Amino acid sequence: MRDCKEIKQWVRNKYGKDIQVYIYKEALPNAVAIGVIPPFQAIIVGRPLWEQLSPDDLRAIVSHEVGHLFHNHTFILYLSSLLSAILFIVSHFILYEYIQEYSEKLPDYLIPMIIGLEAGLLALLTWGLFHQGVVERRLEYAADHFAAKSVGVENYAKALKNLDSIMKGALSKGSLSHPSLLKRLKNIGYSPSNESLRV
Ligand SMILES: [Zn+2]
Fold this sequence. Notes:
- By secondary structure, the protein is α+β, with helices and mostly antiparallel strands.
- The chain is about 65% helix and about 10% strand.
- The chain has helices spanning about 5-15, 45-50, 55-70, 75-100, 110-150, 155-165, 170-175, 180-185; strands spanning about 1-5, 20-25, 30-35, 40-45.
- A four-stranded mixed β-sheet has the order 1-2-4-3.
- A hairpin with a 7-residue loop joins strand 3 (about 30-35) and strand 4 (about 40-45).
- Helix 3 (about 55-70) packs across helix 6 and helix 5 crosses helix 6 (about 155-165).
- The longest helix is centred in the middle third of the chain and has 41 residues, at about 110-150.
- The radius of gyration is 21 Å and the shape is elongated.
- The mean pLDDT is about 85.
- Bound molecules: zinc ion (ZN).
- Zinc ion binds near residues 64, 68, 140 and 143.
């Protein structure tokens, strides 16, 4: 891990906040914001970004991470994953295991109820994971807005597209927690004129 003084200085000048910015030595093709409490918050930038993005693009990507920290997204995500974890532990390890263990000893007429209960737990768990994905996607959009406002829509869109090529199209595809690049660009009000964007 390497301290990144220039970007840290830029963040201080731009946002008036001291946030640690580190370059992660390994080939992590991404940037992340970590830490729940301000003095322990930091932005980690993967080496490929540091090496391949222009200084402007790098700042734009860092702005997105600053957005996550400014809006306490790390704390919201922490609470949200804690809730999912509790839901998972309660539904799977406690109730499911309990049902498995005692179903042998229960009378037959209770079996449909048990199956119903298990299905309900599964639905609850699926909802929990889905909800987690929805929360994460909303936070992504909010951080994109923050970054686009900070560095300008065009500049931020360019940085996202360049990041997408470093990530070999991973941004274009999107994931459970991240909307596709096209949706993210639309969200910041960027219209990709004649360019072809993979969805
Ligand atoms: Zn993000």
